[in-house]
Amino acid sequence: xxxxxxxxxxxxxxxxxxxxxxxxxxxxxxxxxxxxxxxxxxxxxxxxxxxxxxxxxxxxxxxxxxxxxxxxxxxxxxxxxxxxxxxxxxxxxxxxxxxxxxxxxxxxxxxxxxxxxxxxxxxxxxxxxxxxxxxxxxxxxxxxxxxxxxxxxxxxxxxxxxxxxxxxxxxxxxxxxxxxxxxxxxxxxxxxxxxxxxxxxxxxxxxxxxxxxxxxxxxxxxxxxxxxxxxxxxxxxxxxxxxxxxxxxxxxxxxxxxxxxxxxxxxxxxxxxxxxxxxxxxxxxxxxxxxxxxxxxxxxxxxxxxxxxxxxxxxxxxxxxxxxxxxxxxxxxxxxxxxxxxxxxxxxxxxxxxxxxxxxxxxxxxxxxxxxxxxxxxxxxxxxxxxxxxxx
Length: 392
Hints:
The protein is built from twelve helices and 16 strands. With 392 residues, it is an alpha/beta fold.
């Protein structure tokens, strides 16, 4: 039997062209109409039953093996959406949409799953059914949850699910994963500080919300170090602080707002962080004579691999690429991933595919670009998982 990567390598150029086309035409979450249309057209050209509009803009295709007597099934997921970033790279296929770019490599994920689709549709060397999930809105839109709420697992009932993400810090073509927590949960926080405006030259007559917001930031950053067990991973970070107007010289504004995120693995840690955030925010504001309201929104749960499915990925990757290219005990990341919603519904595994990129070209960077040479690797691993999970 030929190695899957040999078969896929015969149409590697086609997959690279697809990836670069997606890169040139990035679309944000639930706006992936062009991307979904291109994916659906490719799948239908392979003769596969293809369904669109799943979870708003998602696409699902079905591949039956040469036999379905086992009744077993596997789901493979790729995310489709881009980021609201202005690309700084100068590749000939750079983004042609201002303020949009594939800075997280989802264009590559789609190309790899399409490569697996073509291989599996041609060979059918498995007993059971494969569902290909092309998911919208991973970047903060909870597109996986949207597909599930749209009946994903009732309509396309995979018994096990798998997904990958490119990883620039891993050598190109290497696979990394573990048998437990892979990615942290993420929650969103918004804080509104109500002060009292006044003249900048007479601050004693005002309650400065900018000062209060600054003190909140300083005190919140002690929560993890002083309220969470050092053995437990947690992060609180702010990404935005807004107050007043630059042109309003000597004007102390009435309000200030802060936006940030909370990361955790254990539910008990989440509860502790949430409690302490409320306590600290309200107490700091009160100490300055101001008021503050905290809105806490749960976004994605932690991404936790099932041990058996993680072992399957490691075993297949070792067989296909060699033990020296597989790290099956990789440290978790404090990044987040909404494939977690699928893993709450079905056993499965989420793994990383090395990109071997230059230092600084990390995910979500305006110079990031997917390494096309790794496309056949990802496609082959997806295909190999199917052939091992659904043996003839």
